[in-house]
Write a structure and sequence with these properties.
The complex is a heterodimer of chains A (671) and B (205). Chain A is built from 34 helices and 23 strands. With 671 residues, chain A is of the alpha/beta class. Chain A has four domains: 179 residues, Rossmann fold (3-Layer(aba) Sandwich); 78 residues, no CATH class; 135 residues, 3-Layer(aba) Sandwich (Rossmann fold), CATH 3.40.50; 127 residues, Rossmann fold (3-Layer(aba) Sandwich). In chain A, the strands form six sheets. Chain A has a six-stranded parallel sheet with strand order 1-12-7-4-2-3, sandwiched between helices. A four-stranded mixed sheet of chain A has the order 8-5-6-9, sandwiched between helices. In chain A, α33 links the parallel β22 and β23. In chain A, α6 packs across α7, α25 crosses α27 and α26 packs antiparallel against α27. Chain A is elongated, with a radius of gyration of 29 Å. Chain B is an alpha/beta fold and 205 residues long. Chain B has one domain: NagB/RpiA/CoA transferase-like (Rossmann fold), CATH 3.40.50.10420. In chain B, a hairpin with a 4-residue loop joins β5 and β6. In chain B, α3 crosses α4 and α5 packs parallel to α6. The N and C termini of chain B lie far apart (36 Å). The chains are: A alpha/beta (671), B alpha/beta (205). At the A-B interface, α6, α8, α9, α10 and β9 of A face α5, α6, α7, β9 and β10 of B. β9 of chain A pairs antiparallel with β9 of chain B.
C-alpha cells in the first residue's frame, strides 16, 4: 500500500488537499521549515494567538518550530509528558517513542521543581498528578493546538493520531484553532489503509495491541468556548500543512523511496547494538539510530548525515525487526556513496583507500612493512599496547599482529599437496585478514578442501574484496578493485570460488552486482563471478553431508565449544545452521550455545578501530556471554570477528581460545 | 448532538462484520488494557450500574453526552439524578462543568475483539470532553456490537466516515515516560469503565 502511494505521491497529495478543503479546512504545502514558520506565525497574527499547546510532532522538531514561537513572544508547551519534561529541561528527545528514556525519576523531579518553582519529590504517581494539573491549565487556556499526524487519509482528508496519554485528543478538542503538520510520507489513499498502520505501530513501538487513544479528525469540528463572557459553539479553524523538506525528492528516488515504509515505531533502535550503547543524543539530531541517519540525510541535512552515518556498523539486526522491511544499512551505504561523490572522503582515508588499495602491489608491500614496523610492540601474535594517541585502540583489546609470512607466500608449498585425481578444482579467495593476519586459517581451509578430494588454486592477482572503501562510500575506487578481482578469477577457469570470510562473500556476490548496475558489460561479468562464490562453512557442510560425515558426535572428554554468528554471515548470507552442524560433527567438540550468539562483537570493519569507545563495551558483553557458557573455545567463521573477539579474550579471558571453524575441522583431520 | 453517523446500526453495521461473537476476545483484551468491564442485562440494570460506579468514584457532578433518543443514556441520567448527583447534559453546561466534574458518561458504538478497543463517535465537542476531562469515564456499549479486529473495524467505519471526529479508546490514559513505569490518568481518565448491555450480570470471567 505504501509502495503504491509513493509511486503516486502527487495524486494522493492532490486528493488529500481537495478533501481537506472540501470540508472547510485550510491547506498549505510547505517546501521547508521556513515556509512552515512563516505560515504559522501569520495565522497567529491574524487569529490573535498568544498560547499554543502541542502534541508530539517529530516534523515540528525537525524544523525547530518551538524556538520560532518563543522568539516571537508566543507561549508554547509540549503536552506529551516526556516531551514536556525535556522542553522544560532544554533537552532534545533521545528516542522516537520514549523521548525521555535517558532520564531517571530524580532528574525528572528536578525538572518538575524547576518549572513549577516548588519542591517536587521523585515520586512517580505524584509527578504524574502534578503534570496533569499543570498541563490541564495549558490545554484550557490555549488558543491554538498543533499536532503531527500518524497518517493522513486522501479519500476523506482525515488525519490520524495515536497516543497513550490522550494529549492529542485534548490538543484537537480544547483550543479554537488546530494546526496539523504532516509529512508527505504519512499519506495513505483509503480509510481502510489506516488499519494496516495501526496494526504495526503500537505492536512494534510499545508492544501494545493498541494505544489508549486512536483519534481521527476529519475537517473542522465544533468547539465550545467563551466569547466576551458568553458560551458559543462554532467550527474550529483547521489548518493542514503538508511538509516537503526533501520528502518529495526521496519519493522519486528509487533507492530512497523505501523510507516511506517507515512508521516511526523505533523498533530498529531497540535492537541496534550501537544505539543501545550510546543512546539517541550522540546522533545530535531529531531522528536517531540508523533510520535517523537516513531521515536526516533525506530531510535536507547531508552534513549531519555525514557526521553520524558511520555509527551504523551494518550488522543488519534492524532489518530483522523492521515492520516496513526497510533495508536500513543498504540505504545508508547508498547515501554515504552519494555523500562521498559530492564531498569526497576525509584526507587520510582518501590516501589509504584511493591510492593504496587500488594498487595491489603497494598495498601488499605496505602490509609487509607494517609487519616489520610493529615488531617493537607485538608479542605472541598480538599488538598489546600502542604508544600515545593510539592507546585507546588497544585498551581492553589487543589488535592482531600482521603475520611474518602471508598466506600467498605459503601457498606454493601447499599447492603441491593437491590430490592427483581431484573431484574438482576450486579457487580460494582469501581476503586481507586471512592472507596477512590469519594465514594459518587459510592453510586449514585448503587442507579441509584437499581432504574432500578437491584441488585448490590461489590466483595471485586477487586483492582486497573492496569492502573497506565501499563501506566508506567510495564507489569509484571500489569498482577498480572489483574489476581486478573479477579478472583474476576469470583467468583461473574454475566454477567454484571459495571464501572463508562472510564479509568478502557478501561483497563479492551482492555488492559487486549492485555497483555495476549501470554498466552492462561489467554487470554481466560480475554476475557470472557472483554465481561461483561459495562461503566456506556452507560449502563444506554440504560436502560432508553428501559424504555422510555430518553426523552429530561427542567423544568422552570433548572440549566445550561455543559459536559466535558474524553479522554478515547470519543476516547478510543467512548462514547459521551449517557452522553449528560442522562443529557438532567433530567428536572432540561438545557444542554449547551462548546468550545472544548473533549480537555484533563490535568490530564491523574499520568501525572497531575508529569508534573504539563504542566498540569495546560491545566486545566486553560478548566476552562475558562466552565466559558464561564455560566453553574453553569460541568458534567463529569470520576473520574480522576473530580479530575483535580474539583481541578481547587476550586481554580479558586469556584461557579461552578462538578458532575459525576451518581451524577446528583441519585440526581434527590431523588426529 | 453532532455525530459522524446518525444511526450506526442501520447505516454501518452488517451481521457479517458486527455481531456478538467477538465478545470474549474483546473483554479479555480490554481488561489487559486496564479497562473495567461491567456486564448487565438491560438498560435498567445499566442505569443502576452507572449509579453504582458514580458512588464508587465519589462523583458529585457528572457530565453526559447523548440525548434522550439514546434510551440507555436517558435511563442512566435518571438513575444518577435519583441518587443525588448533579447531571449536566446541555452542551454549554457540559463545556462549563467538564473541567471540574468527577465523572463523564457517553456511548460507544461498537467494540474491537483483537485490541479491546471501543469505537466512539465524538464529532460533538461535548462527547469529547466528557471522555477526556473527568478523572473517570463510563461508556455504554451494546454487547452484541463487536467486530473481529482493526481491519474489520475500519471496514465498518469506512462506510460512514465522511467528516468529523472518530476514534478508538483502549483503556484509560497512560504513560510510561518516567523510568518506563506505567502510570494511569496522565491527561485523560484514570479509570475507564465499559458498561456492556446484553450480557449476564456481574463481572465477566
Amino acid at each position: 500500500m505504501k509502495h503504491w502511494t509513493v509511486q503516486h505521491i502527487e495524486e494522493v497529495a492532490d486528493e488529500f488537499e481537495k478533501n481537506v478543503k472540501a470540508r472547510g479546512g485550510h491547506f498549505f504545502r510547505a517546501k521547508d521549515g521556513d515556509e512552515v514558520k512563516k505560515y504559522v506565525l501569520q495565522i497567529c497574527k491574524e487569529q490573535n494567538v498568544k498560547r499554543v499547546v502541542k502534541s508530539k510532532s517529530m516534523a515540528s522538531e525537525e524544523i525547530h518550530l518551538n524556538e520560532c514561537f518563543t522568539e516571537n513572544g508566543i507561549h508554547v508547551r509540549e503536552t506529551d509528558l516526556g516531551e514536556w519534561m525535556l522542553a522544560v529541561a532544554g533537552q532534545k528527545p533521545s528516542h522516537m517513542v520514549m523521548p525521555a528514556i535517558h532520564l531517571n525519576r530524580q532528574q525528572c523531579a528536578g525538572f518538575f521543581s524547576h518549572e513549577l518553582k516548588e519542591e517536587i519529590p521523585p515520586d512517580i504517581p505524584f509527578m504524574i498528578s502534578t503534570a496533569r494539573r499543570v498541563l490541564r491549565e495549558e490545554f484550557l487556556s490555549a488558543d491554538m493546538g498543533i499536532t503531527g499526524a500518524n497518517f493522513g487519509i486522501a479519500e476523506n482528508g482525515a488525519i490520524g493520531l495515536v497516543t497513550n496519554e490522550g494529549n492529542a485528543r485534548l490538543v484537537t478538542t480544547l483550543p479554537r484553532i488546530h494546526v496539523v503538520l504532516i509529512g508527505y510520507e504519512k499519506l495513505i489513499p483509503k480509510i481502510e489503509d489506516a488499519s494496516k498502520i495501526l496494526r504495526l505501530l503500537p505492536r512494534n513501538g510499545t508492544c501494545q495491541r493498541m494505544t489508549s487513544y486512536m483519534t481521527m479528525v476529519d475537517g473542522p469540528t465544533p468547539v465550545i468556548h467563551k466569547v466576551d463572557g458568553k458560551w458559543v459553539e462554532e467550527d474550529r479553524q483547521q489548518y493542514v500543512i503538508l511538509l516537503d523538506n526533501g520528502r518529495l525528492k526521496a519519493a522519486h528516488d528509487p533507492k530512497l523511496q523505501e523510507v516511506y515504509q517507515c512508521v516511526r515505531c523505533a523498533s530498529c533502535l531497540n535492537v541496534c547494538p550501537i544505539w543501545t550503547l550510546v543512546g539517541g543524543h550522540v546522533y545530535g539530531h531529531i531522528y536517531s539510530g540508523g533510520i535517523g541517519a537516513i531521515l536526516t540525510g533525506i530531510l535536507g541535512n547531508m552534513q549531519a548525515f555525514g557526521q553520524f552515518s558511520d555509527l551504523c556498523i551494518g550488522c543488519r539486526r534492524c532489518t530483522t525487526v523492521c515492520p516496513g522491511k526497510i533495508p536500513i544499512p543498504d540505504i545508508i551505504d547508498e547515501l554515504r556513496s552519494r555523500y562521498v561523490k559530492e564531498h569526497g572522503l576525509a584526507l587520510p582515508e582518501k590516501t589509504v583507500f584511493q591510492k593504496i588499495l587500488t594498487n595491489r602491489s603497494i598495498f601488499h608491500r605496505l602490509i609487509r612493512i607494517a609487519s616489520i614496523a610493529q615488531k617493537p610492540v607485538a608479542s605472541g601474535g598480538f599488538v598489546r599496547n600502542l604508544p600515545l594517541f593510539f592507546a585507546g585502540m588497544t585498551k581492553g583489546r589487543s589488535l592482531p599482529a600482521i603475520a611474518d609470512k602471508p598466506f600467498r607466500d605459503r601457498f606454493p608449498a601447499l599447492e603441491k599437496k593437491n590430490p592427483s585425481n581431484p573431484k574438482k578444482t576450486v579457487a580460494f579467495f582469501s581476503g586481507c585478514n586471512l592472507d596477512f593476519v590469519f594465514p594459518d586459517t587459510s592453510v586449514h581451509v585448503v587442507e579441509v578442501l584437499q581432504d574432500l578430494g578437491y584441488a585448490v588454486k590461489y590466483p595471485m592477482g586477487q586483492s582486497c574484496c573492496g569492502k573497506p572503501v565501499l563501506g566508506m562510500g567510495d564507489r569509484e575506487t571500489g569498482k577498480k578493485i572489483a574489476k581486478q578481482n573479477i579478472e583474476a578469477f576469470e583467468n583461473a577457469g574454475v566454477d567454484v570460488i571459495l571464501t572463508a570470510c562472510p564479509t568478502c562473500a557478501e561483497t563479492l556476490s551482492h555488492t559487486y552486482h549492485m555497483i555495476f548496475e549501470d554498466d552492462p558489460e561489467w554487470s554481466a561479468r560480475a554476475d557470472a563471478f557472483a554465481k561461483k562464490i561459495y562461503e566456506f562453512t556452507s560449502f563444506v557442510a554440504n560436502a560432508y553431508e553428501k559424504a555422510g560425515r555430518l553426523k552429530k558426535q561427542t567423544a568422552p572428554g570433548a572440549h566445550k565449544v561455543t559459536y559466535h554468528d558474524s553479522c554478515h554471515m547470519r543476516r547478510g548470507l543467512g548462514i547459521y545452521k551449517e557452522p553449528r552442524a560442522l562443529l557438532d560433527s567433530v567428536p572432540d567438540v561438545d557444542f554449547v550455545e551462548m546468550k545472544n550468539p548473533d549480537k555484533c562483537c563490535g568490530m564491523a570493519g574499520a568501525f572497531g578501530v575508529k569508534y573504539s569507545e563504542i566498540s569495546l563495551p560491545m566486545l566486553s558483553e560478548k566476552i562475558q556471554n562466552i565466559k558464561d557458557t564455560g566453553a574453553d573455545t569460541i568458534a567463529v567463521a569470520c576473520p574480522a570477528c576473530m580479530m575483535q573477539i580474539g583481541g578481547g579474550l587476550d586481554k580479558q579471558a586469556p584461557n579461552i581460545k578462538i578458532r575459525h571453524v576451518a581451524d577446528i575441522l583441519a585440526e581434527n583431520l590431523h588426529k | 448532538m453532532k455525530r459522524v453517523c446518525e444511526d450506526w446500526k442501520t447505516e454501518a453495521f452488517t451481521p457479517d462484520l458486527i455481531n456478538g461473537s467477538w465478545w470474549d476476545a474483546f473483554a479479555e483484551n480490554a481488561k489487559a488494557a486496564s479497562a473495567e468491564i461491567r456486564c448487565v442485562k438491560d438498560n435498567a440494570a445499566a442505569a443502576a450500574e452507572v449509579a453504582k460506579i458514580a458512588e464508587e468514584v465519589k462523583a458529585k457532578e457528572v457530565v453526559v453526552a447523548g440525548d434522550d433518543s439514546d434510551e440507555g443514556i436517558a435511563a442512566a441520567c435518571q438513575a444518577l439524578q435519583d441518587s443525588g448527583r448533579t447531571v449536566y447534559r446541555d452542551k454549554f453546561e457540559v463545556a462549563e462543568h467538564a473541567p471540574k466534574a468527577e465523572l463523564g458518561l457517553s456511548r460507544a458504538e461498537f467494540a474491537v475483539g483483537e485490541t479491546g478497543s471501543v469505537v466512539v463517535d465524538t464529532y460533538s465537542y461535548e462527547a469529547r470532553v466528557v471522555g477526556m476531562l473527568p478523572i473517570a469515564h463510563i461508556v455504554l456499549l451494546d454487547a452484541n456490537n463487536t467486530t473481529e479486529n482493526v481491519t474489520t473495524a475500519f471496514k465498518v467505519m469506512a462506510r460512514v466516515f465522511k467528516k468529523g471526529y472518530l476514534g478508538f479508546i483502549t483503556g484509560p490514559s497512560r504513560t510510561a515516560d518516567i523510568e518506563r513505569v506505567l502510570s494511569l490518568g496522565v491527561h485523560g481518565p484514570h479509570r475507564f469503565f465499559i458498561v456492556a448491555i446484553g450480557k449476564e450480570e456481574g463481572e465477566t470471567k
